[in-house]
Amino acid sequence: MTLIKSGRLYIIGAGYAGQNLANEIKNKGIFGEVVAFLDDDPLKIGKRIENIPVLGPINDVAKILRLHPADTAIIAIPDASREYLGELYRILKNTGFDKIRILPGISQIVEGEAHLIQTRSIDPQDLLGRTPVTVNLKQSLQYLRGKRVLVTGAGGSIGSEISRQLLSAGAARLYLLGHGENAIYQIDKELRLLQEEGVGEKTIIVPIIGDLRDRNHMVWIFAHLKADVVFHAAAYKHVPMMEENPVAAIENNLFGTDNLIYASRKHQVKRFVHVSTDKAVEPVSVYSVSKFLCEELVMKAARESDSSAFMIVRFGNVLGSRGSVMPLFQKQIEKGGPVTVTHPEMRRWFMTIPEACSLVLRAGGVGENGKLYLLDMGEPVRIKDLAEQMIRFYGLEPEKDINIEYVGMRRGERLDEKLSWDSEHIELTDFDRILNVDRSKFKGIEIDIILEKLRPICFFALDAVDKYRNSALLRDILKEYFKLSE
Question: What are the residues whose beta carbons fall under 8 Å from the beta carbon of 302, sequence distance 6 or more?
Answer without folding.
Answer: 309, 310, 311, 369, 370, 371
